Amino acid sequence: MPTLATRCRQCPPSGGTVVAYLPGQEGHRSGHRAWELTQRTGHRHHDHYDPDLDAFLVIDNDG
Ligand SMILES: [Zn+2]
Question: How far is the CA of 37 from the centre of ligand 1 (A)?
Fold first, then answer.
C-alpha cells in the first residue's frame, strides 16, 4: 500500500487517504493524469509526488 508523504504541505494533519496511484516512470504524463484526477474529484482532493514511492498520488483530504 502506498504511504503518504508527510512532507507534503497540502496533506491534512489526519493524513488523508490515497485514492489514486500513478507510477512515476511515466514522468510528466503521470503527473498530468494525477492533476486531471484532482480536478475531476474536486476541492477535497489534491495531488503530490512522493519521491520515496516514485509515484504521483491523489489524496482525499477528508479521508
Ligand atoms: Zn499531499
Answer: 14
